What does this fold into?
Amino acid sequence: MTFASLQHHVEDFMQIPPEAVIKQDILRCGLRFSEAAMTIAAGYKPKDYFIFSFDLIEIKDMQQREHLRVPEEICISDGPFELANTIISVRINPDSPYVVDVIEGRITLHCDGNWVGDVTYHPIPSFYHEPLSSGKAMGEVAPVLEWGYLIYLTVYRMCQYFNKEEQCQFCDINRNFIQQRKAGKPYTGIKTVPEIIEALAHIDRMDQRAQAYTLTGGSIITDLQGVDEVDFYVQFIEAIEERFPRRWISKAVVQAFEPKDCQRLKDAGLQIYHPNYEVWGEKLFNAICPGKARVIGFETWINRVAESASVFGASHVIPNFVGGVELNSVCGYKDVDQAVAHTTEGLDWFMSKGIMPRFTTWCPEPLAALGHQAAPPLAYFCKLLIAWRERFLHYGLKTPPGYGAPGVGNAVFSVSAFMDVLPALSMTES
Ligand code: SF4
It folds into this structure.
């Protein structure tokens, strides 16, 4: 990507704000940081590796030990496009055209040598300094993302689909776990209820910024510590909601379950259900998610997602897909428009039922089975955002709960621009 090409995309896709175009490009290409920019980042919230690596290179290849030095997110503003505040997750790529540097005392973002905007980092939350009885850091047990809006509780850092090499082909969760351990990071495989409660007690006492928590981890196919996946998560939800009733919006990323199992999660106190379908269409689902395809199957998966609306309410069922993975070079589309049309079929299927799929931007991680490869073109993401918003408005859906305020300058969701392209709420709606 050159700066001229970025400018052309901003002009060609005037239906969406420049902030969304640039955010998608940075997520697509990753970021690099100058020494000075990383030195300053030492005083701000670091990248906590909350679940996957979300980097374009392995830690062992990071010449400047970037994995310990970059911030979790950057916020860009101003620049030639007069950007409103735009929050973007950091994905390390030493070959990215985007570099965060320090020029005349200001942290700035450049593409291909051209100034894109000014940069701010997220301060370290005060509760990050609180001690835990295990000796672990708060950022390991209960990190925050989305500029402090979301507490991210990865309570199981492995996925059992890896046991038979049936993992989702874009996913590096187990291999990231291994590389983090090798790199010396204390990385907890299975977190306990007491350590989560202890960490949340600090947040409860000291923080007003976080509004939601996400409970998640890899899939549990048989059992973990003697319980199935639903019961494993239920114990956390029950404990959190008993100790801090409705203190935060509760969300869980888990598999697609039958309504009776969804009801167990709901009864425990879960408000928002994320049964991620990852990619639309049986053929791609089978190729990209072989474990989910074998154990549950595409048709059953999406039908369970639809049925779960009877438990949570359609607006509280928010399945994720991995935007762009349908263009992977191993088994994906070659043509951007065909890929967008295909994925839009899925958007229509869910949104016509009042369910709102959202997406994260595919990061071709080297430790994932698909391996490191070229990211999908920026035009794909622009067209996807346009199609996504068009379907959203067509079905008159409401801003999803648990994502903060929508619209340019407000959105905090940092791994795709879907919240940035939504209209801002009026004072009466917010
Ligand atoms: S279910 Fe798929 S995406 Fe989720 S952790 Fe397992 S392999 Fe990764």
Remarks:
- The chain has two domains: 3-121, 127-394.
- Residues 159, 161, 167-168, 171, 173, 218-219 surround iron/sulfur cluster (CB under 6 Å).
- The longest helix spans residues 378-394.
